[in-house]
Design goal:
binds adenosine-5'-diphosphate; 18 strands; eight-stranded mixed beta sheet; binds magnesium ion
Length: 414
């Protein structure tokens, strides 16, 4: 059985018009001889009646006294509703289809509610259904714990659902349909010259996704990479094939992709910089601070350590808690709210001279202050004020000439 997995995100299933576009892609896949496993997200964005955030608002957001298992029960309904509405639309178009919840589709997870891990995929039921119908529509973002309780697998989870199914069913492709043309050189909502990439490696996309490019969840990329199933990131609203995500070893000709020093720019907003200064002769500051953060489940990022003290970042929502913990330890930290972390990502930047100096020059010329920086062999990070974010991303995009044709790789090179 030739199988393709096609995932449609929240905006792609939000209304009848979007679903009509989605159906065109499914018809195309059926005409190519595929059985189609569709994964759907909840319908629409915050404010729309059946969107995840809307369901959450029914119980006062994240702050109510509900147990995590009840949150999961509520949130899972968004995708279940979406799967049934989508199945109905397929029927209206003369396509045979069955809707399955995540659990019915075989997602067996641990019991860590709201962020459960997929333990095993048991797809017998799904495969049986696929013998009978052209399309099985699976509610994304969910599974069931060993005791049968419904679990959800974290935000961006439908991407992960699609990748797990693609991997378990050994699909030819995992198509991620969304509201942009593919993986772009930067978030098009911020970078006016951002352009779609034609072919990228799993590693490049994974790095971009971890640094905040939310077009696909990084976990989904890792799962597909392990199973060696190619991903295509495509627009629901056009006929293009989008961005092909594959492994570097698939290349027959040359090593163009590997050598691309910069693939794109990613960013994370709503970050707070925290500076804690060492007291005289204090030698255990780092371990004291990071132990305290870990004990309170506050994740820290962008850590710089020096004899004078430690500097790190936390998310905006964790700022007050971090501050009160530090105060209780007798520290008087310096806090810089409203920062953004901008990352220049590229698998081939290691050993390429001048990348850092280009970044510093580009930002300085625009009068943008770099609050902190760090680098690895694939990424250079800078922390800037949120008010400089748009200018910073655009300046870096220009500095590395990411709008030029050199980024286009013909598919037949792969
Ligand atoms: P979906 O609901 O389909 O999962 P998301 O909102 O999660 O859609 O992801 C799509 C969005 O990701 C785009 O609208 C775009 O603003 C954003 N985005 C951020 N970085 C990138 C990038 N490098 N390439 C493409 N889109 C990006
Ligand atoms: Mg998404």
């Amino acid at each position: 059985m030739k199988i393709i997995v096609q995932k449609f995100g929240g905006t792609s299933v939000r209304d009848d018009e979007s679903r009509t576009h989605a159906i065109k892609h499914i018809k195309q896949a059926i005409s190519e001889g595929y059985k189609v496993v569709v994964v759907v997200s909840a319908m629409g964005r915050k404010g729309e009646p059946y969107a995840t955030d809307t369901l959450l608002s029914l119980v006062g957001g994240n702050v109510s006294g509900l147990k995590p298992r009840e949150y999961d029960l509520l949130l899972s309904c968004g995708e279940i509703i979406s799967s049934v509405v989508f199945t109905n639309k397929l029927h209206e178009n003369g396509i045979t289809a069955t809707a399955l919840t995540g659990s019915q589709a075989g997602f067996s997870t641990n019991a860590e509610h709201t962020g459960a891990k997929i333990l095993e995929m048991k797809c017998d039921r799904l495969l049986q259904e696929l013998e009978e119908v052209e399309v099985v529509v699976v509610a994304g973002f969910q599974g069931a714990a060993p005791n049968g309780d419904i679990t959800t697998i974290g935000r961006g989870g439908s991407d992960t659902s699609a990748a797990a199914l693609g991997s378990a069913l050994n699909a030819d492709y995992i198509d991620i349909f969304t509201d942009v043309e593919g993986i772009m050189t930067a978030d098009p909502r911020i970078a006016e010259n951002a352009r779609p990439l034609s072919v990228v490696t799993y590693t490049e996309v994974c790095n971009l996704a971890y640094q905040g490019a939310k077009v696909i969840h990084p976990r989904a990329v890792e799962i597909a990479m392990q199973a060696k199933v190619p991903i295509r990131i495509r627009s629901t609203y056009t006929e293009g094939l989008g961005t092909l995500v594959t492994s570097a070893s698939k290349q027959n000709k040359g090593s163009d992709i590997k050598e691309r020093p910069v693939t794109g720019i990613a960013h994370v907003s709503n970050v707070t910089q925290v500076k804690v200064f060492a007291k005289k002769d204090q030698y255990n500051l780092q371990s004291e601070v990071f132990k305290a953060m870990a004990n309170e489940n506050i994740s820290v990022d962008f850590i710089n350590i020096s004899p004078k003290g430690v500097v790190y970042t936390v998310t905006e929502e964790m700022t007050d808690r971090a501050l009160s913990i530090l105060n209780s330890l007798g520290h008087d930290p310096q806090i810089e709210r409203n920062c953004a972390k901008v990352s220049v990502v590229g698998a081939g930047m290691a050993g390429v001279p001048g990348v850092t100096s280009k970044i510093v020059t580009a930002l300085t010329e625009k009068g943008i202050r770099i609050l902190q920086s760090a680098d690895s062999h694939t990424t250079i990070w800078v922390l800037v004020k949120e008010s400089d974010l748009v200018d910073a991303v655009n300046a870096l995009h220009d500095a590395f000439q990411l709008e030029t044709a050199q980024l286009e790789y013909e598919r037949d090179e792969i």
